[in-house]
Amino acid sequence: MNNPTNGGRRGRHRRRWTATGLLLGVPAVLVPYLLVAQEDSQAATVDGDAYYRLVSVRSGKVLDVDGFSTADGTRIQQWTDQNTANQQWKLRPTRDGYYELVNRNSGKVLGTAGDSTARAAATEQQADTSSTSQEWKIDEVSGSDAVTFTSRRSGQLLDVSKGSQADGAAVIQYPATGSANQEWKLVKTADTRAAGAGTARTTAAAGPYVWKNAQVVGGGYVTGLVFNQREKGLLYARTDMGGAYRWDTGAEQWIPLTDWIGEKDWNLLGIDAVATDPVDPKRLYLSAGTYTNEWAGNGAILRSTDRGRTFKRTDLPFKVGGNEDGRGAGERLAINPADNGTLLLGTRKNGLWRSSDHGVTWRQLSSFPVKDGAGSGAGISFVTYGPAGSKTIYVGVNDRSTSLYRSTDGGSTWQAVSGQPTGQLPQHGVLSGDGSLYLTYTDNLGPNGVTAGSVWKYTPGSGTWKNISPSKGDYGFSGLAVDPRKPSTVMVTTLGRWWPEDEIYRTTDGGATWKALADKSVRSASAAPYVGTHTGHWMTALAIDPFNSGHVLYGTGNGILRSKDAGASDTGGTSHWSMGARGLEETSLLDAIAPPGGATVITSMGDQGGFRHDSLTKVPSGRLSNPMMTNSTDIDFAQSKPSTMVRVGRGGAQDGAYSTDGGRSWNGFKAEPVASAQDGHVALAADGSTIVWTQAGQAPYRSTDNGASWSRVSGLGNDAVVVADRSSARTFYSLSGGTLHASTDGGATFTARAGNLPSGRLTAVPGIAGDLWISGSGKGLLHSTDGGRTFTTLKTVQSASALGFGKAEPGTKYQALYLIGTVKDVTGVFRSTDKGATWLRVNDNAHQWGAIGGVGVITGDPDTFGRVYVGTNGRGLQYGDPS
């Protein structure tokens, strides 16, 4: 706050309202702010339209919502100033000189957890309920430019707990002490700062838009769950194509850490391994890379010193396969507990690598005997350090003859462990507190194709092995966790036990006896109804909280199941499990529509088929059904009859379906153009009268009876994508082979209208006949207003991956344009309200989500100006609103 320090007058400031500050002649005590209707003030002014950073006088750090979360209950902390939206607050007056502190990122207010009046009660962000615990009186600190915040409800001050100067220190309420940790400076937010060179943020600077996920909850394969052994509540999740997450204990939801990864680095969103430092919990390492194919880029180590809030990157000279077979094994990345600057990385095709400088540089460990993919081609499956000071390391290798190596000299020499089981591949290896090594095995890499497996216990002291498998059948075992507080308590999961379902086993006597939990537990699907109440599939990630033995989580192909009383079965009780994946959104979008006046948005997805979202903040009641497809590749609606829509894909009773009630219910097509074909693209006439479907590898076919019969379209070849005019019901278009074709007879016949065009995505503007756009990749963005007879290339766009349309800006008539592309050498998501003459970037460097250009799914909202939906490949459906 810019207060005069010598009683002198400040210049005139124009504000909606101002506040008196330190009053002359008043003793040096806290003086309340009083609202006055004047422009000229001798004291501080607060701008009701501005955002402020609240800087702790003691630490110099700012008031911060943990992890950029938008959830109720997220804790408030102090953090190094990054000028990000979750660190910016609007001071909104309520009454009697009190204010609400409104967070810029979430729009929620700062309150006291549970409306508590207790000393040291935590603060958190909450939905605005007008509670007195959400109202704060601002008092100036005499003789300084600092202020205090006093809770109306408790009379206590906003306080950094225990006077800490550390990042992540909790902000609480506490009786007045006069200490600097209760004093704050208000710094008005200026323009957004760019991220520093060489550093990637996981939180966004305050930009023009706020981004959130349309909720599905889960939707993809969670391959790893890793607790930090030193810091309570610090937990990470890795996914095969959607990046990494950190658990927010206050809000009980996941915080995405890798949304900053952009189009050119899309391959880094597959996380193959996670390591959290057992000595310095702030340090986090990710082994990133999705594929080892020739066309994929090399992997990288992403290293953080602030629990994943920011990262630095070390490129690796080889590829990493976070979305390949065997991805549920691990962890392949491990930190030496006796020297936390030393890390080991197991690779799929390049042996064992070591870093001695906190992951900055890496060299292959020449002493390790396996330097390739081993017998399976998938190389190393896990790396496990022994107790600090032991110099013992175990490495699991995906080889059916020799699958476990040990070093007792810190990695200088290695030997195959004598007596080990053969014929199977190790998934996980975990040391217990009593020195025993537990291992799970499968006959194939998994997660698919597993038909056998086992669980083994190795006792290093005696060199003995024991098969402690809890059951035997045509399935394997993968997930493995040992209770750090109870070394004889072990949990494992089956893999590939498709009937009746995969099982979770628990032992409290080191594997002598086991209890199956599936029938001794209650599972709730309320947080994600589409998942159902079965145990799940692809259960390869399993973790027991080192600070709370009853808190257990396991990953599935649809997310995470979580229990707070997992040990209830130990005494004959029932454990309770619920979906623990809130905030973790890993679906892969193939298309999305936003019909005017109906559902907010309806999606086509890989693996899940798709969902109808009546609300963006509530989880849908279930997947699109009748048929329930595994993959839905395309969806369209009739522009002048938006309750009529069609979708196509595969994996259901039929490969196509129509709806006449806005996607609430569906009817499968009674026939298909080519019975042996599936997937592809579909277009629906503006009045819903004609469907044109191009199945994958086939020519387009049309139907005028909701899919009961089909006739081949004339004038187009195989795989020609057809687009409906959004005004004229008889008109369709197709861009194929650089030629724009058009039909004016309901899609029966097509003729060429324009040639020498770039290949790309063709879209038609709602409500205007003949208004077309081509997103031509590196050829830019092209526009036609005469039904595709001529096109003009916009000079404002360098490259265009996809274009969508939304409600026009107030005062204008033409649809707002939303572009995934490159403008002025910046690649991102853009909006134009003047037909592409100018563009505003609406995402930022912290919200890039990998290969969104390759996905090519973007649409504006027809009912809400400014809202845009962006499909991702592994981070669900994102939606942005003006901030």
- Low-pLDDT windows of residues: 1-43, 191-198, 201-206
Round the mean pLDDT to the nearest integer and report it.
92
CATH domain topology of the largest domain? Methylamine Dehydrogenase, Chain H
Helix content: under 10%
Number of helices: 1
**Known CATH architecture of the largest domain:** 7 Propeller
From the alpha carbons, calculate the radius of gyration and give it in angstroms: 29 Å
Bulk shape: globular
Which structural class best describes the helix and strand composition? mainly beta
Biggest sheet overview: 5 strands, antiparallel
- N-to-C CA distance: 24 Å
What is the number of E strands? 72
The CATH superfamily of the largest domain is identified as YVTN repeat-like/Quinoprotein amine dehydrogenase
Count of spatially separate domains: 5
Strand content: 35-45%
The level 1 CATH classification of the largest domain is Mainly Beta
Describe the structure.
The protein has 883 residues and is mainly β. The protein folds into 5 domains: 51-188, Trefoil (Acidic Fibroblast Growth Factor, subunit A), CATH 2.80.10.50; 222-371, Methylamine Dehydrogenase, Chain H (7 Propeller), CATH 2.130.10.10; 418-586, Methylamine Dehydrogenase, Chain H (7 Propeller), CATH 2.130.10.10; 589-757, YVTN repeat-like/Quinoprotein amine dehydrogenase (Methylamine Dehydrogenase, Chain H, 7 Propeller), CATH 2.130.10; 767-882. The protein has 1 helix and 72 strands. Strands 2, 7, 8, 11 and 12 form a 5-stranded antiparallel sheet that branches. The chain has a 5-stranded antiparallel sheet with strand order 16-25-24-23-22, with no helix packed on it. Residues 1-43, 191-198 and 201-206 have low confidence and may be disordered.
